[in-house]
Write a structure and sequence with these properties.
Layout: E1 8-14, E2 20-27, E3 33-40, H1 47-55, H2 61-79, E4 82-85, H3 89-101, E5 113-117, H4 146-154, E6 157-162, H5 166-169, E7 179-180, E8 184-185, H6 201-208, E9 214-219, H7 225-230, E10 234-237, E11 257-262, H8 265-275, E12 308-311, H9 320-335, E13 339-342, H10 353-375, H11 382-391, H12 393-396, H13 403-409, H14 417-441, E14 446-450, H15 453-462, E15 466-474, E16 477-484, H16 490-504
Length: 518
């Protein structure tokens, strides 16, 4: 009590999970103490620690949701990462708390607040728009995306949707990462005038800023890995077919996937396991049987011992600071017990940029037309979207156009020989002649490189797994290190990524610097 006349007091205690919990209380005239509200120090607390705290009775799911929603209201105006909050979040949290009191805990995500990207269908009172005004008034999806069904079954509390690059960065050749007509520009949480990178910019920025415990992004080519790297969080782009894409606004079915974004490898591994399951609406998930329901069991602080890691130095670039940081992290891998072997990828892949785009252009037209037809509403085809954008230029195209939309509209169908031949060529370059060949030659567990475009693109086109982990800072911005390998090698990648994370502890929470350092 700050003075004898004050009837409100603050009590600070530390939960079993390490979270500071502050309760504001007051006394009634009868002397009875009433709890008014509880504030939880959410900065850098993991989903694993939150679950531990709830199990210990230190706080409830409702308390977590209330505090994250408050944090979004207070902090997100600087970042602009959350496009909408779930009006039913507290009701869901209450239900999870009731179940817990009855002894029912659905999964490690029971009662855990999560944010998901605004291209993932939810059959609730939130919108699913891909950032476009064209879908703001569209009918709500008739059913949840399959991965949303998995989240709800696991007891996770979806507290909102995150901004993204409109249409997942596939509208214009000159698009701006993190900008959408509906949501505006998402800022980098470390340096607010810097770009957050990638179409899952909102999820990466929000999770880094501790606006939810964990998040989900989507990727076609770098859209999980790039924003995770630039926002200083862990991102997992899983093997194609490990988790379902049904109910996610598409770009290209041969590359699209969703994946975890979290502040720790542990949380990302837990979330990945919850999402894995075969979905009859997505034929690629027939391969999900090769996955695992519990990726957390592969977490091993000594996971670098005996690991054979290929070093792709050809992708380090010429930046002196990046080279120095990468070499220091190679030493961390080596001192942790890993054997490092220099590897080289053939030049075939680098020559296929036009081919890679061609495949996306063909698939986008087919895939988005199918999605829009099933969704219903005024705009049921790509041609309809193009017309809408032209008629709403002020709102939709103040900064860039829709060249990719127009190029995609001009393509034929997926029986065209040029599409089939091109798809086969790029898959062979990234798989048989690419990652498969490099890994097999030296019997590698993974390949490591700076988490930059060339490496995440190879894995994306191949449909192979990739994990980025915070690895340090250059000029106040976080830098990631990437681990990637053959299909369905998530267990090895998680083991190695976790050991690296535990050894380096490179992540630091953002301080929301308003301008770039001079």
């Amino acid at each position: 009590m700050k003075n004898g006349k004050q009837n409100r007091r603050e009590f600070l205690k530390v939960s079993a999970a390490g979270a500071a919990v502050m309760s504001l209380v007051k006394k009634t005239d009868a002397g009875k103490i009433i709890f008014v509200e509880t504030q939880i120090e959410l900065r850098e607390i993991s989903a694993f620690e939150l679950q531990t705290g709830m199990k210990a009775g230190k706080f409830s799911s409702r308390m977590l949701v209330e505090n994250y929603l408050k944090r979004i209201k207070e902090i997100d105006p600087k970042i602009n990462s959350v496009v909408e909050v779930n009006p039913d979040a507290l009701l869901i949290a209450d239900q999870m708390d009731k179940e817990r009191k009855r002894g029912k805990v659905r999964s490690p995500l029971h009662g855990i607040p999560i944010l998901i990207k605004d291209n993932i269908d939810t059959a609730d009172r939130m919108k699913t728009t891909a950032g476009s005004f064209a879908l703001v008034d569209a009918p709500p999806p008739e059913r949840d995306a399959f991965i949303v069904t998995r989240l709800r079954k696991a007891g996770a509390v979806i507290i909102g949707k995150t901004n993204l690059s409109e249409w997942a960065n596939f509208r214009s050749t000159k698009s701006i990462s993190g900008w959408s007509g509906r949501g505006g520009q998402t800022n980098n949480p470390y340096v607010l005038d810097k770009n957050p990178c990638g179409s899952s910019a909102g999820t990466g920025a929000a999770i880094s800023a501790n606006l939810a415990a964990i998040g989900i992004g989507t990727e076609t080519n770098g859209s999980i890995i790039c924003p995770a790297t630039r926002s200083g969080v862990v991102g997992i782009k899983p093997t194609l077919g490990l988790i379902s894409r049904s109910g996610i606004i598409p770009i290209a079915h041969t590359q699209d996937t969703a994946g975890p974004m979290a502040r720790t490898v542990n949380d990302a591994a837990i979330l990945l396991g919850v999402l894995v399951k075969r979905d009859k609406r997505d034929a690629t998930t027939a391969n999900s049987k090769k996955g695992d329901k519990d990726y957390a069991k592969f977490l091993d602080a000594n996971g670098l011992r005996g690991a054979r890691i290929g070093v792709a130095r050809q992708f380090v670039g010429t930046n002196a600071k990046q080279k120095e940081l990468f070499e220091s992290n190679l030493e961390n891998l080596r001192s942790g017990g890993a054997t490092l072997i220099d590897v080289n990828f053939t030049e075939d892949y680098g020559k296929l940029a036009d081919d890679r785009l061609l495949v996306l252009l063909y698939e986008f037209k087919t895939d988005v037309n199918k999605y829009l037809a099933e969704r219903g509403g005024a705009y049921r085809t790509l041609a309809d979207l193009i017309k809408f954008n032209e008629e709403n230029k002020t709102r939709e195209m103040p900064l860039f156009g829709q060249e990719l939309f127009e190029q995609s509209q001009s393509k034929g169908n997926l029986t065209d020989k040029i599409y089939i031949d091109t798809l086969n060529r790029i898959k062979q370059a990234t798989r048989e002649k690419g990652i498969d060949a490099v890994v097999a030659k030296d019997k590698l567990d993974t390949v490591v490189a700076p988490a930059t475009g060339a490496t995440w693109s190879i894995a994306a086109v191949a449909g192979y797994p990739y994990i980025t982990v915070p690895a340090g800072f250059i000029d106040a911005l976080p830098v990631g290190i990437g681990f990637f390998g053959r299909a369905f090698t998530e267990p090895q990648l998680i083991k190695i990524a976790y050991a690296f994370e535990q050894k380096t502890r490179a992540r630091r929470a953002p301080q929301f610097m308003p301008k770039s350092p001079t």
